Amino acid sequence: MIPGFDRDGCKDTPCPVKKGDKKKFSYKLTIPGATPTIEADVKARLIGDKGDLFCGTVHGDIKD
Q1: Alpha carbon 4 to chain centroid distance?
Q2: In a domain, 38, yes or no
Q3: Using CA atoms in the order 30, 32, 35, 39, what is the torsion angle rounded to 10 degrees?
Q4: In a domain, 1, yes or no
Q5: Torsion of CA 14, 18, 23, 28, to 10 degrees
Q6: Which pLDDT tens digit goes with each residue over 8-28?
């Protein structure tokens, strides 16, 4: 879990989420200055009342 991450996805995309709906989910995150240069896969999971709504992986890197 990311420190300070708000677990309420409805603050970042309109809710309720319904089957067949297309939604855009975005989240802005401040990367601390002390973070080292790194390349990694970032995994995201959005969980609803009845289980997973979305799971995905994005490859990214943090550079100076």
Answers
A1: 13
A2: yes
A3: 0
A4: no
A5: 50
A6: 777 777 777 778 888 777 777
pTM (2 decimals)?
0.46
The dihedrals phi and psi of 41, each to the nearest 5 degrees, come to -95, 130
Q: Please count the structural domains in the chain.
A: 1
The alpha carbon dihedral of 31, 63, 38, 60 has a sign of positive
**CA 61, CA 42: separation in Å to the nearest integer?**
9
The one-letter amino acid at 62: I
State which residues form the domain around 31.
Answer: 9-62
Q: Confidence class of residue 54 from pLDDT cuts 50, 70 and 90? A: confident
Residue 45 belongs to some domain of the structure: yes
